[in-house]
Amino acid sequence: MQPILAQVDPTPAESLPAPTLEAPLEPAAATATETVSEGSATIFDIVTTIFAKGDALAQPGRMVEALQNMSIVSATVFLIVGLLCLFNGYRYYRIATVLLALAIGAFVGYALGERIGAQWIVAGCFGVLLATICFPLMKYAVALMGGLTGAYIGANGWSCIAQLVSSRTDGLNIADHYWIGAIVGLTLFGMLAFVLFKLSIIVFTSIGGSTIAVLGILALLLQIPLFSDDIASGLRAHASVIPLLVLVPAVIGLVLQETTGGEEAQAA
Question: What's the predicted TM-score (pTM) here?
Answer without folding.
Answer: 0.77
